[in-house]
Amino acid sequence: MQEYCDKCFNTTIEEGVCLNCGNLSEADLNIFKEALEGEKVDKDAAKEIGDKLKVDWKKTDINEFAMGIGIESEHTDTVGDNEETFAKIALDHLKEDPSYYSKLKKAGL
After folding, report:
1. Which of 42, 46, 60, 81 matches a 20 to 30 Å C-alpha distance to 19?
2. Where are the domains of the chain?
3. What are the DSSP calls for the chain, one per residue?
4. What is the pTM of this model?
5. Which of 51, 98, 100, 50 lies closest to 71, judged by CA?
6. Tell me: the pLDDT tens digits for 60-99?
7. Quick check: 24 and 17 in contact, CB under 8 A?
8. Per-residue confidence (pLDDT) for residue 89, from 0 to 100
9. 2 φ/ψ angles, rounded to the nearest 5 degrees
C-alpha cells in the first residue's frame, strides 16, 4: 500500500518523514509525543551522569538535562540502551538552545 503525506499528499516518504515537506507521519508523531511524556529521568541520576560528563551546571539546567535524557532514550534502537549516550545527545541540543526540551513540550511535539 502506498503511503501518502497527510500534509502535501506526496508519496516520497522515507522512515516516516515526507521528503517533500518534512512532515512527520502520524505514527512517528505519536511515537515522538510518547517519548516526551515517556521515560522520566530522576534529577539525581541526571546529575550523576552530567558530573561524569563534566557538565557545567552554571550553563545547563538540571531539569532540562534530565528531561532531555528521558526524551533521547527514544534512540535505543540505533544507539543502544546507554544513558550516557542519551545525555550526550541532550547536551548537544541544550548547547544550541538551553530551553530545547521545554520548548518541545510546550509545542506539544
Report:
1. 81
2. 1-28, 38-107
3. -----TTT----EETTEETTT-PBPHHHHHHHHHHHHS----HHHHHHHHHHTT--TTTS-HHHHHHHHHHHGGGHHHH-S-HHHHHHHHHHHHHH-TTHHHHHHHHT-
4. 0.64
5. 100
6. 999 999 999 888 887 777 777 778 888 999 999 999 999 9
7. yes
8. 93
9. -75, 135
